[in-house]
Write a structure and sequence with these properties.
The chain is of the alpha/beta class and about 325 residues long. It is built from eleven helices and eight strands. The protein has an eight-stranded parallel sheet with strand order 2-1-3-8-7-4-5-6, sandwiched between helices. Helix 10 links the parallel strand 7 and strand 8. Helix 2 crosses helix 11 and helix 9 crosses helix 10. It is globular.
Amino acid sequence: MSSTGTPRGPVDSSRVPRYAGPATFARLPRLDEVGRTDVAVVGVPFDSGVSYRPGARFGGNAIREASRLLRPYNPAQDAAPFALAQVADAGDIAVNPFDIGEAVATVEGAADELLATGARLMTLGGDHTIALPLLRAVARRHGPVALLHFDAHLDTWDTYFGAAYTHGTPFRRAVEEGVVDTAALSHVGIRGPLYGRKDLDDDEKMGFGIVTSADVMRRGVDEVTDQLRQRIGDRPLYVSVDIDVLDPAHAPGTGTPEAGGLTSRELLEILRGLAGCRLVSADLVEVAPAYDHAEMTSVAASHTAYELTTLMARQIAGERDRGLDTTDQAPPRLIL
């Protein structure tokens, strides 16, 4: 934020070529350059929780590189997000690649610190293990949150090889720990083979509603989005996007691809339809650039993060216009 209170935006691409300079998200300033921020874009280069192909530890920087082409006005939402609120790149949370428990604790602590400044988080993974510590930190500020989870997979399994903390288990742990509102849990984009019918039965008992990728195709984006909004209501909302929610034709660069996924257009339109929801933070995970082609996955991911950031910036600006406290520093309602 400048001394005049005006948000500091991206580097002017009419003066500095897009391919020049450091690759911060959308060419935005670093957090240390602005002092404080309304939305912190933060990376978590961690993929020790994956069950198949590794490489998501490089996802955050790949998304940043692809985001060089993003522009400051979002016509789909009729908003200039970086003028509505200060958005800054907070760099990466450096986590232990050999100890999942320590890594989870590090992510949780760093998220606590960033949220304590009043910022909302747009986190770039990394694998989906990181969603659990992020949800813990967000719930400490808001109480149990509504969860909208975009993914090919449920991620509510109990363990892998006896390990309770992996990229396939974060949302079972979140339900068990009470950090999510079980009246407002939704998966979107689920598809592909499962280990058995019990996977779906367990998921339903936890409170999740499922919108499959086929549901989106048959019913359409508008109907699906209306249903999701009804389930979310006016609750504080956390959105978690695994890039493998997209069909491999749109996002090949991921660790566990499944055929029959959403198009990038469908994902972006559903996110745009969340305008007005109380989006308190979000993550975008499982981009593995080693399997990508022509930055297809990273480009899709950068636009996804851009839409989520725009939603948060619009909400922050709306609260400011109504004279509400936008620092989001209400006393905790949940002790974990």
